[in-house]
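subagent[fold] <- orchestrator: predict structure for attached chain, return tokens only, no commentary.
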Amino acid sequence: MYNPSVSGGSANSVAGSRLFVYEVEGLRQNAETDKMGYPIRQSGSVFITVPYSRMNQEMQRITRMGGKIVSIHPVDAANGQTTPATSEQQDSGKAMTQAKPEAKKEIPVNLYRPKDPFVGKVISNEALVDEGGIGIVQHITIDLSGGDFRYLEGQSAGIIPAGTDENGKPYKLRLYSIASTRHGDKMDDKTVSLCVRQLEYKHPETGETVYGVCSTYLCHLEPGADVKVTGPVGKEMLLPDDEEATVIMLATGTGIAPFRAFLWRMFKDAERRANPEYQFKGKAWLIFGIPTTPNILYKEELEAMQEQYPDNFKLIYAISREQQNAEGGRMYIQHRVAEHAADLWELMQKPNTHTYMCGLKGMEDGIDEAMSAEAVKHGVDWTEFRKQMKKQERWHVETY
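subagent[fold] -> orchestrator:
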């Protein structure tokens, strides 16, 4: 991919025993609130401590009382997360004790810069679009032997195309999301793979077909060719280390690249053998938007992983030119999100759920609209809730 720049659960489970603090505004005293033991105010915020197992019920109750949830925080000092004091703690004046946050893992960044790039060799350049599909998309694997180019899943690599621009200056680099795990497709820690679509569009004035400089260069490189690589860069899209995490992935087109890396790390047998410290046991969802069936990138890989891990991996396609949405129009990714909004909302209430979005920038508004409609049912402002997820480093977006 080119890149230019809390509800449900069992109280008997570990998650089910967790506590959360709801910050609520606008509660009013009524017959419903008289049945409860929570403090009610006419204005300002009320802080309500809620067990995980009752989060959905509590959201509904707050809605009935005319309240608005402005934030949700886990009470989890052991993990170093910041939580607001509950109303009881505020009244008593007792301060909450916070544990020191865990040390951040090392993230390799800018090991190779534009003025001194690593020169790798193309090992393979394989077509990803089947016959009858739209456009050209290639899976390009580059040999990194002899260098120190290290990366993590979710990072990007820079490519400097050969040649000069119309002013005779070297072309500037372009960033592409890495489509392989840190071990590379060959599991030897010596390669990096990219998923690249050849950019093609009509000039608005002349009508002439214009091809992207770097994407065209990459898509037509022959095995054995040298290629200048910079980076890696990026900390926004990193996969959490938590083996029990829920990972929601929303992709369009070549936005599948980082999620291929995620899924390989989670489910590929060779990866699981190579990473005994990371054996994914959580839940992964991928909603993937593409125009036609031949454009489903990595289709065989994705469906093989779904078949092998049906309890851990859910795969949903939105095929715009072949499927219809509920209104009879084309099926885009936001329509699939709307169809599954209730389940996605419930998953997002879990403190270890991470949501990732990667692909065309136009996907964001439609997804926000779909999730806003669901959040309203629970008396929650989606924009505020999304901001809270962002603050908690659980909402990750890379669009272009």
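orchestrator: received. Logging for downstream: The first strand starts at residue 19 and ends at 25. The two ends are 9 Å apart (CA to CA).
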